[in-house]
């Protein structure tokens, strides 16, 4: 069965510091990968998705970037964090046959102070 | 474009009582519909989904939902809730043939089950 791992689970970072959140999927190949953000009272927002290595689509302009260096690895980064980047970040995946169904990881809490 | 409205932000119920969490959507194209559950400090878990076929969909943990195209609704129900069902529930929609990952989520309904 497929599993998704996301880390770190909790992160407290000062304003202006860099960010790196990592996500890996096991048990499948060639998944579509996604980064969502869940901010308090604002629901879930799709930030990035990737259909293959090196292929990244951004849904909203922001202070963040994403990379996919390997088939099952997805990284969310920032060079300089803002207070508004605080939130709960969720990595997710889907497979070609079930492109319409997205499965989520456990999430990472980011607090920018 | 699609949108989702979850009509209740919070729903308190007593244990063993029935519950209905309401979800309405709008879309100019046909849709797929989903319910996810989020326990405190955890990611989202898929409860059930409607893709096609029978409008009554059964999911995990005894939940079910009914797709009503004329009323553009996809309400979630459970005949008897447990304390362990306390969580936040999200309805989501995607247009058939839409871009990858374009799941539009409602703002969530917090279900609180009291003993």
CA gyration radius of chain B, whole angstroms: 14 Å
Gross morphology of chain B: globular
Number of domains of chain B: 1
CATH superfamily of chain B: Immunoglobulins
What is the CA-atom radius of gyration of chain A, in angstroms?
13 Å
**Oligomer description:** heterodimer
CATH class of chain B: Mainly Beta
CATH class category of chain A:
Mainly Beta
Low-pLDDT windows of residues of chain A: none
Element order of chain A: H for helix, E for strand: EEEEEEEEEEE
DSSP helix count of chain A?
A: 0
Structural class designation of chain B:
mainly beta
Notes on the protein architecture:
- The complex is a heterodimer of chains A (113) and B (115).
- Chain A is mainly β and 113 residues long.
- Helices cover 0% and strands 57% of the residues of chain A.
- In chain A, strands 2, 4, 5, 6, 9, 10 and 11 form a 7-stranded mixed β-sheet that branches.
- In chain A, strand 5 and strand 6 form a beta hairpin.
- With 115 residues, chain B is mainly beta.
- Chain B has one domain (3-114): Immunoglobulins (Immunoglobulin-like).
- Helices cover 0% and strands 54% of the residues of chain B.
- Classes of the chains: A mainly beta (113), B mainly beta (115).
Compile the SSE list and pairings:
The complex is a heterodimer of chains A (113) and B (115).
Chain A: E1 3-7, E2 10-13, E3 19-26, E4 32-38, E5 44-52, E6 55-58, E7 65-70, E8 73-78, E9 87-94, E10 103-104, E11 108-112
Parallel strand pairs in A: 2-11
Antiparallel strand pairs in A: 1-3, 3-8, 4-5, 4-9, 5-6, 7-8, 9-10, 9-11
Chain B: E1 3-6, E2 10-14, E3 19-21, E4 23-26, E5 31-38, E6 44-50, E7 56-58, E8 64-68, E9 73-78, E10 87-95, E11 104-105, E12 109-114
Parallel strand pairs in B: 2-12
Antiparallel strand pairs in B: 1-4, 3-9, 5-6, 5-10, 7-8, 8-9, 10-11, 10-12
């Amino acid at each position: 069965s497929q599993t998704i791992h996301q880390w770190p689970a909790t992160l407290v970072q000062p304003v202006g510091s860099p960010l790196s959140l990592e996500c890996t999927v096991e048990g499948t190949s060639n998944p579509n990968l996604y980064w969502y953000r869940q901010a308090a009272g604002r629901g879930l927002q799709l930030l990035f998705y990737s259909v293959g290595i090196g292929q990244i689509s951004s849904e909203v302009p922001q202070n963040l970037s994403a990379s996919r260096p390997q088939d099952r690895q997805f990284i969310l980064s920032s060079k300089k964090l803002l207070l508004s980047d605080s939130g709960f970040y969720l990595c997710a995946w889907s497979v070609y046959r079930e492109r319409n169904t997205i499965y989520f990881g456990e999430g990472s809490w980011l607090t920018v102070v | 474009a699609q949108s989702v409205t979850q009509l209740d932000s919070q729903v308190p119920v007593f244990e063993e009582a029935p519950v209905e969490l309401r979800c309405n959507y709008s879309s100019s194209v046909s849709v797929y519909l989903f319910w996810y559950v989020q326990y405190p400090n955890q990611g989202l878990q898929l409860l059930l989904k409607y893709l096609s076929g029978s409008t009554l969909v059964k999911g995990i943990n005894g939940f079910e939902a009914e797709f009503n195209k004329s009323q553009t609704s996809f309400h979630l129900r459970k005949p008897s809730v447990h304390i362990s069902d306390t969580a936040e529930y999200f309805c989501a929609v995607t247009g058939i043939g839409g871009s990858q990952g374009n799941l539009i989520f409602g703002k969530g309904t917090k279900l609180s089950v009291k003993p």
